[in-house]
Each structure stands twice: as structure tokens, then as C-alpha cells.
Design brief:
alpha+beta, 3 helices, globular
């Protein structure tokens, strides 16, 4: 593995009630976060291939960790998202290199299918900074009930020469969705949108 991983942390969030209303079955989200050494910290590098290769490794690893945490078969994953938080000696493009060219394919394999684009966010920050992971339905981007997010924070990451890379997966929509739009049961699965 090219990624030099200092730690992996997995979060699970389960919502059982909202505004006094039962959420049944509970909605569940999982996020898996890898804290890695940034190979380009402190210097400009025109060729970011090493970070792209790291993204390919982490997409599958973190996606599988989320599915395992939810204790579901990959086919039951409904939403996904990705994010990266770069320490102060890096640059935003380092997050883009990890997240965009290569991370998506192995993540889609980990959740079985995934026709829609994987929502993403990139940021820079110090240890303890909050990382927002946007979420969207894995097969149809227009399913409003799955527009969501998950926030994670590690008190000791990212250090100046590190990057936090996160993937989130859900087994359901938001708790009690009711803003209309395309329903998950109406997905055609032709273009990643509907």
C-alpha cells in the first residue's frame, strides 16, 4: 500500500427519533477516516499521481469499513460521500488529487454499483477541525431524501504533514424525509441522475 496510514477511525451514527417522532427503522450512517502522511507536504509538486494512487487504495478500504460497520451487504448501501482535510503544510489540490481521479471506482465496488457522482468536499485545517462529508444517493443524484451529510472530527488530526481522508455510507435516507422529489423506489438507474 502506498498510503502511510497513521490511524483509521470508524464512526457510526444511528437516529432512532427526531422531533419526538420515532424513526423506524432507525437511520444509520457510517464514516471511515484514514489519517495519512502527505507525501508532498511542504513543497510544490506538479505531478500528483502518488496521491491519486493513494485515493484508489483508500476508496475501497474505507468504503468496505463503512459497509462492515453498518453490518449490511454492499447492495443495501444507499448513500455515499467523500471528503479530505489537508494539514497546514499541504494544499487543497492534494485533497482533490486523492478524491477525484481514482477513489470513486473502488468505493463504488465496495457499495455495489453507484451510478451517481460521489459528493465530495475538500478543506484545509489543523488538528480538531471539523470535516463535513456530503452524502447523496449512490444510484440517482436527484433523490432529495438522501441529500445529507456527516461531520467528523479527530482531536489529533490532521497534523501539519497529514491528510484526513473520509468516506461515508448510509443504509437509508435522512430521518423522516418529506421535501418531495424523486423517491428511491422510483429510480430508473440509467444516467446516475434519475
Amino acid at each position: 500500500m502506498r498510503a502511510e496510514i497513521r490511524k483509521i477511525v470508524v464512526f457510526i451514527e444511528e437516529t432512532r427519533s427526531e422531533m419526538g417522532q420515532a424513526v423506524s427503522p432507525p437511520t444509520r450512517k457510517a464514516a471511515a477516516v484514514a489519517v495519512i502522511r502527505n507525501p508532498f507536504a511542504g513543497r510544490y509538486e506538479a505531478d500528483l499521481t502518488d496521491l491519486m494512487d493513494i485515493g484508489a487504495e483508500l476508496g475501497g478500504l474505507l468504503g468496505r469499513r463503512c459497509v462492515e460497520a453498518l453490518e449490511i451487504p454492499p447492495s443495501q448501501a444507499e448513500s455515499y460521500g467523500k471528503a479530505a482535510l489537508v494539514g497546514e503544510n499541504g494544499e487543497l489540490e492534494h485533497a482533490a488529487a486523492i478524491l477525484h481521479p481514482s477513489l470513486g471506482k473502488p468505493l463504488r465496488e465496495a457499495v455495489e454499483k453507484g451510478a451517481a457522482l460521489v459528493p465530495s468536499s475538500k478543506a484545509m485545517g489543523a488538528p480538531g477541525a471539523m470535516l463535513d462529508i456530503p452524502l447523496g444517493h449512490k444510484d440517482a443524484a436527484f433523490v432529495r431524501s438522501h441529500f445529507d451529510g456527516m461531520r467528523v472530527m479527530l482531536n489529533d488530526a490532521p497534523r501539519a504533514n497529514e491528510i484526513m481522508v473520509a468516506v461515508a455510507v448510509t443504509d437509508s435516507a435522512r430521518p423522516l424525509p418529506r421535501v418531495g422529489g424523486l423517491k428511491a423506489s422510483e429510480i430508473e438507474g440509467k444516467d446516475g441522475l434519475r
